Amino acid sequence: MEFSMRALLRLVVLTSCLLSVGTALAQEQYAPPPQRQRSPDTFSPGELVREGHRFFGTVSRGLAQVVEAAVARWGQPNGYILGQEGSGAFIVGLRYGDGKLYTKNAGDRRVFWEGPSVGFDYGGEGARTMMLVYNLPATEAIYQRFGGIDGSAYFIGGFGMTALTANNIVVVPIRSGVGLRLGANIGYLKFTQNATWNPF
């Protein structure tokens, strides 16, 4: 009898331990995701949409949705670029642009970008471009080559975005423009301090 009481007591203790661990795991599994802390050197979605509306010259729901999608995926950027670019492609194309990089605490910089694109693109494009910049450690770090991220294309309401990355920095170009570009292209953008015709 004493043996069975000990076995029963162990079984009760073991069962209650397993239940408490299972309950804790279930609560952890269904807990809402932690809120991202806003850093004082990042831009909120509201600030980005406001600047975008001023820059593109229109109030667009599509712009707000693209910015929200970028922030949901990569968080709040610590920089953004406003500029213009021209490009054209039929299988192989080129893209050139210039603009200004804005940050809250590190100053502003003039930037130029150029790059080839390879893929099924059709047509020419002249566009105003807003680029969100994530994880930028210093303004000089923008001057390098950024390669495309697969599966990052998103289009809505006349606006589209893709994503490029290099050395843990992510650049998300948001474009609106005239012309037709079909399909996804594979390419890169090279940011420079001075204008150049060499995309390589």
Care to describe what's here?
With 200 residues, the chain is α+β, with helices and mostly antiparallel strands. The protein folds into two domains: 1-31; 45-192, no CATH class. It contains three helices and eight strands. The chain has a five-stranded antiparallel β-barrel with strand order 2-7-6-3-8. The chain is globular. The model is unreliable at 11-37 and 178-184 (pLDDT under 50).
Give unreliable regions as ranges. 11-37, 178-184
Compute the number of structural domains: 2
Radius of gyration: 24 Å
Share in β-strands: 35-45%
Oligomer: single chain
- The SSE string, one letter per element, is HHHEEEEEEEE
SS content category: alpha+beta
What is the 3D form? globular
* Termini gap: 85 Å
Kindly state the number of beta strands. 8
Which features would summarize this protein structure in a list?
200 residues; alpha+beta; 2 domains; five-stranded antiparallel beta barrel; 3 helices; 41% strand
